[in-house]
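[Automated response] Your request has been received and processed.

Submitted sequence:
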Amino acid sequence: MKFILAVHGSPHGSESGEHALNFAQAALAQGHTVTRVFFYHDGVLQALQTQVIPQGEINLLTQWQGLAEQGVELAVCIASAIKRGILDETEQERYEKQAATLAEGFELVGLGQLIAGIQQSDRYIEFSC
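Generated structure:
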């Protein structure tokens, strides 16, 4: 079965990212496919390169990056990301900011990527705030 997931909650203000990550890992372990994880609204903060993980907490960022290494696309809504200061190198130059803040393994995309992913998958699962 092919899944596409959407994450709406921030990494430290919600458990949606952790729940989505656990689901994705379990689905992959059972032989299913997770084609894309789409980060939307505050969920885009999951892709923030400069976040500091409190001691003793799970580092969701590195776990997401581990999924990317397994072929899962980590798609970050560009509109939501830019509003929250998450920029790739192209957007950094465009808005004349000092640094790119999008973590490795993530990609800024439009909402069309979410729609295309839903059409190509068997199941769409949303992890809200």
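Summary generated for your ticket: The chain has a mean pLDDT of 96. The helical segments are 16-29, 60-69, 78-83, 89-94, 111-120.
If you did not submit this request, please reply to this message.
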